[in-house]
Write a structure and sequence with these properties.
elongated; eleven-stranded antiparallel β-sheet; about 220 residues; mainly beta
Length: about 220
């Protein structure tokens, strides 16, 4: 697992640095991002239902490669915490499960920009999210009881290593002077792979990100 993460980190950062310095990618820009997200779970299991949103956080590097005037390929290397909760209710038990999952993400997206006007332009984005699970914890809370029965239980063996998702979103980019630009917007990251490795049924997670990035 550690070797895989180190390999992904080396490949991604080497590619970004090469692109920044190479003559071929003069339309490349590198930036930093840090923003909140709001995650939820989509269970397909008997007696289990989604139980609302939980806040998480994303931060890391992002890179945009302009291959035409208003078209950009975007990728990055981000650490994302996706939290969510479910409620299990049947004749025998009634409890809430809180999932706290952390992923290394390498998104692959296409951004479509409008023409720039007064230092600002809008964009839409669509792509594939690729996540590698690096941490998985769970809290169990009985219904109608403020006391947590189990807290920060390691469930790494029960969580799939890979998470795939479809990304769709949009926002605006502002010129701040020189080569510095700021980007803000909304992204919906819709997970389509089962995040569980055992048990009956499927469990998927998704999140809405309130994006903020600065490009240099």
């Amino acid at each position: 697992m550690k070797k895989l993460l180190l390999s992904l980190f080396f490949v991604c950062t080497s590619f970004l640095l090469f692109a920044q310095e190479g003559d071929t990618f003069k339309g490349f820009k590198l930036g930093l991002t840090a923003h909140p997200n709001f995650g939820y779970l989509k269970p397909d299991m008997q007696d289990v239902k989604s139980d609302g949103l939980r806040a998480g956080f994303t931060y890391g590097l992002i890179g945009d490669f302009a291959f035409a005037e208003n078209y950009t390929f975007s990728t990055g290397l981000k650490l994302t915490t996706i939290n969510g909760q479910t409620q299990t209710k049947n004749i025998i038990s009634d409890f809430q499960s809180i999932y706290k999952l952390q992923y290394i993400e390498i998104p692959l997206e296409i951004k479509l920009f409008t023409n720039q006007k007064q230092g600002m332009r809008f964009f839409g984005e669509f792509g594939l999210g690729n996540g590698i699970n690096v941490k998985a914890r769970q809290d169990i809370k009985p219904a109608n009881n403020a006391t947590v029965a189990q807290e920060n239980v390691d469930i790494s063996d029960d969580i799939a290593m890979y998470r795939g998702s479809i990304i769709i979103g949009g926002g605006a980019e502002f010129a701040l002077g020189g080569k510095t630009k700021m980007s803000t917007g909304l992204t919906f990251d819709n997970g389509f792979t089962n995040i569980r490795t055992n048990g009956n049924g499927k469990l998927k997670n998704s999140y809405l990100g309130l994006n903020l990035a600065v490009f240099f």
